[in-house]
Write the C-alpha cells for this entry.
Amino acid sequence: MSRRPLIAANWKMHGTVASVQAYLEALVDRVGAAGPEVVVCPPFTLLPAAVLIATGSEVAIGAQNCHWEDSGAFTGEVAPAMLAAFTGEVAPAMLAELGVRWVIAGHSERRQYFGESDASAGARAKAAQRAGLDVIFCVGETLEQREAGATLAVLERQSTAIEGLDPAHLALAYEPIWAIGTGKTATATQAQEAHAALRRRAGELLGEPAAAGLRILYGGSVKPDNAAVLLAEKDVDGALVGGASLDVEGFWAIIHAAPGEHRGAEE
Ligand code: 13P
C-alpha cells in the first residue's frame, strides 16, 4: 500500500465566512488529484461555507473535533454524524463523495485546555469513523517529557487509543507540544525518530500491513521554509499545519514542498 502525502490545515479558532471563502477559492483550482491530499479544517461555524466551495474539488474539509456519542443531551457539543450530514444539506447527489470528510481527534490543545484524555480522544475517533469520517489522531510530548527522555513512552501510551480504529480511515499526527505555535520545529531527525516509533507501535496495534500504509503527519511550527526538510524524512508522510496554514500562499507553498512520489510499504 503506498502512502500519498497528506497536508492538512488546522485553522484552530480563526477565520470568518468571508476568509474561508476567499481562501478556498484561491486553493481549489490549484490542488489536483495527483499531488498530495489536501484537507482544510476551519472552525465548526465555517464548515458549511467551506464545504460549499470545496464540493467537486480535490480539497477535503475537516472538523477540528467531534463528540463521542451519536446524539444526546450534550449542550454545546457536535456529533460526528452532524458533520457528515452537512453533505446532505449542500450536495445531496454527491452524498458519498463530499461533505466534511475528516475530523481531528486528540489535539494537544484539547488535551491541555479542555480535559481531553487518551480515552476520550479515542472514543471521539471511534465515533467519527462510525459516522463515516476519516480521523487525524494527534499525539505528542511536552518539553518536560522530552527532557526527561520520556518521549517514546508518552507516544506509545497516547497511541494506544488507535487500537480498534479502521486504519483505512486514519492518519496519525505527531505534534510535539513544545513545537506548537512556538516557532521551534523538531529537527528532521527528531521527527523521523518519533515517526518510526509510532509506525512500530501502529504495527503492534493495527497489524504490520496497516502500519506500513498509515500516514503519519508532523505538526508543530511547519512553515514554507522548513516543510521540505521535514517531509523528506522516510516516515514523515505529511504535515498538520496551524499558524502557517492561515495564509493561503503559505499553505500552498507547504503543499508544494511535499514529495511528488507516494511512498510504498515495500521500502
Ligand atoms: P502551528 O503550526 O501553529 O505550530 O500549530 C501546529 C498545530 O497544532 C496543528 O494542529
Notes: Residues 188-206 form the longest helix (19 residues).
